[in-house]
Amino acid sequence: MNKTIRNGLVSVIVPAYNAESTITRCLNSISKQSYSNLEILIIDDGSKDQTARICEELAKKDSRIHLLSIKNGGVAHARNVGMQAARGEWIAFADADDWMKSDFVQKAVSAHQKYGCDTYCFNNFKVKNTTIEESSPIRPSSKVYCQDEIELLMNSLYIPQKNMNSGELFRAVWGKVLSASIIRQNSLQFPENIRIGEDALFLLDYLARTRKVYIEDEAEYYYLVSNESATRSFRENYEQTIMDEYREMMSRFQQYGLNDQEASVYFWRVAVQNYMRNQLFKTSNALNAANSLKKYLSHIDEKKYLKIFKNGDSFRTKIKVILCQFGWYRLMGLFMAVSIKANGFERTAERRSTQESR
Predict the structure, then answer these.
(1) Beta pairing class for 142-146 and 38-45
(2) DSSP type of residue 197
(3) Residues 23-61 as b or e (16 or more Cβ within 10 Å = b)
(4) DSSP state letter for 135
(5) How far apart are the C-alpha atoms of 321 and 230, rounded to whole Å?
(6) At residue 107, what are phi and psi to the nearest 5 degrees?
(7) What mean pLDDT do residues 222-241 have?
(8) pLDDT in tens, 95-134
(9) Is 279 within 8 Å of 234 (Cβ atoms)?
(10) pLDDT (tens digit, 9 = 90+) per residue, 243-254?
(11) Which run of H or E residues covers position 251?
(12) Residue 294 has what pLDDT?
């Protein structure tokens, strides 16, 4: 067993862009880790606010903090710069608006001493406004994955697995401690031509080289849910963006001998629903959104995948699939608009009920 992590350096990489309102909380949570042998690399991705100045002030108080300022190139490029600069034997990622529990790194160290894996993953908390909730429980709750089971983990990045939940946000690189030697020896990088899903593509490449992976259900990372994220906001070039991710994903699934046909089914199911939400957020007009979806589907040969029902599909999902199957895009847009409003009412009622019960 490699025990170097017992005292080994852990590099924590934080890409930051216009993060002046959240970067202090993020870096404080890393600086206060109970495991102290860290280097904290902030990659300022061309911020136009006070992010760099704040980081410089924090670095004066903690010599482990290092600021690298670069020209804006996106989060994938920033993470690649961070990996090139990292000196640690282990690498962890954090987003500038998130934070972690004080024992996050120590949990990975302790797990390594017990299991001798090369990758450690933990559950997370989702933060929505002032509400903090733990993500769906990981099943099994504490498990070492090796050999053929790692292939299941790779498939799970795009395909829900029966009797297994590797984590609601397992596709993200944060909440994990990764082997720097695997990354360096295989020259792994985040694909910089991809603007959505670059985490999952990187993890496919990384997991294909791993030997043993440990996943723990205990939540150690706080993820700030924002409507400004790439999957929740309107993008003018969404059609090309999603096609780029699809081609990269399919290429890897075929290269690594994974279930590419099943992955294709789920990819387009999620992509179409995200596309609808993006248009609705932008236009607040269900008919315009429906027309946009019709135009979007005319560019791809994946419409047939929308016809397939999967185990666990909700009633609402089945209705949307049926509407797409018959080309009733306007009705689908209206249905999604009503569903979004209904969900909003339900959440408001739930919050009021909770407040009243207190």
Answers:
(1) unpaired
(2) S
(3) bbebbebbbebebebbbbbbbbbbbeeebbebbeebbee
(4) P
(5) 23
(6) -60, -40
(7) 66
(8) 999 999 999 999 999 999 999 999 999 999 999 888 999 8
(9) yes
(10) 899 999 999 999
(11) helix 238-255
(12) 66
Q: What is the mean pLDDT of residues 13-42?
A: 97
Looking at residue 292, its pLDDT comes to 66
Separation CA 75–CA 54 (nearest Å): 19
**Crossing angle between the packed helical segments 23-31 and 51-61, to the nearest 10 degrees:** 20
CB 141 within 8 A of CB 88: no
Residue 348, exposed/middle/buried by CB under 10 A (0-12, 13-18, 19+)?
A: exposed
Residue type, position 128, single letter: K
User: Residues 167, 170, 172, 177: what is their CA dihedral angle, to the nearest 10 degrees?
Assistant: 100
* Phi, psi dihedrals of residue 125, rounded to the nearest 5°: -100, 140
Residue 133 phi/psi, 5° resolution? -135, 145
pLDDT band at 299; cut points 50, 70, 90: low
For residue 89, the 8-state DSSP code is S
Structure tokens at 265: 């089914």
Rounded to the nearest 10 degrees, the angle between the axes of helix 198-207 and helix 148-156 is: 170
Distance CA 55, CA 52 (A): 5
Whole-angstrom distance, CA of residue 12 vs CA of residue 9: 10
pLDDT digits (tens, 9 = 90+) for 277-295: 665 555 556 666 666 666 6
Name residue, tokens 């699939």: 321
